Amino acid sequence: QCTYLEVEQAEHTHAVVLSRPAWLWGAEMGANEHGVCVGNEGVWTREPLGEDEALLGMDLVRLGLERGSSAREALEVMTALLERYGQGGSCKEEPVPFVYHNTFLLADRTEAWVLETAGRYWAAQRITGELALGVLGALGAVCPCQPPADPSVAEGSRNISNQLSIGSEITAEHAGLRQRARSQGWWSGHGEFSFAQVFSLEQQPPRMEAAKARFRAGRELLRQHAGHITAETLMSILRDKGSGICVDAEGFRTAGSMVSVLPRDPALPCVHFFTATPDPSRSVFKPFVFVAGIKPVPQVRSPTFLQDPAKQIPRFQSSVDRRHELYRWHQAALELMEQDQERGQKLLETLQELEKQGLEGMKALLEGTETPHPEELADLFFDCVEAELKFYT
Predict the structure, then answer these.
(1) What's the whole-number mean pLDDT along residues 301-320?
(2) For position 167, what pLDDT does the model report?
(3) Among 69, 271, 310, 316, whose Cα sits 20 to 30 Å from the Cα of 366?
């Protein structure tokens, strides 16, 4: 059972960690036990929006992670389900439908892809080369691979925002993609075929104009750090408010943020940093590692409701408080930061020190200078959340 419809079950699913809107089944971004990371952004295209309930792009994120043991396999899962079931339905917990198509970033230890969609149609671009992949979206989905230790290995990066970005560099595509473009008069059938050019709206929604600036800014920030992109680099980019990457205006605020370190050496663990709270500029990135016996973290799980307005038909006729415990305390801390700048600054510095400790611990783990006991890694995310809560309470 996905957000709106059922799909056939798979024989086997992988363990996943997800950052998601609490009312739906899918996820904005996440990772699985095999080091696959997927994140999505909304886009508007020439294909009509499907208000009929189908798969959400966020459902596809989770389905790809649960069923794909590599980025390429996740891509194949997502495109097959997209072609079969389509995408559609409201992406927001409000009575007035808010519908969009999706662009995705997929990465694992060895390769990365951008997947972009327009209705049931899609195009995918494999990010070539020996990459340290820095991937960021308008709302902060990030999946970077740690730069290789060998300085002779080339490094590359790729970002997305709320717009189509695959031009003629198409690695794989829907079998009927070009015929669809010709039949609609969007492409003559001759010369270069650019997915973004052919399927983008001629008159973009106002929010898409801001996406162009975010896309350019993200690309430029990654370029400035070329050759030395680290987890800290990506965190700083996600916190950049001047570029609009970190959103905190006009009724929108960046929700959860994620940065993943994916070592090429399979003997080393992947480390996934999550804020689990909004506005990364005032949040703590906390490390998570897949190991056996992971300790549950109820402080970052949203409550469930017997009479859930997202599941009753008609949907979204009332609202409920879905904030988890850490979210509620974090919001109170944000208010403190705004009301008492001196106390707020001290709290922020304390939180930054907590994050620094987590980063240093994970660096030691990845460099092999420390070998934590498996139980320590199983409790890692729980302990970091508990430590953050203590500073708030």
Answers:
(1) 96
(2) 96
(3) 69
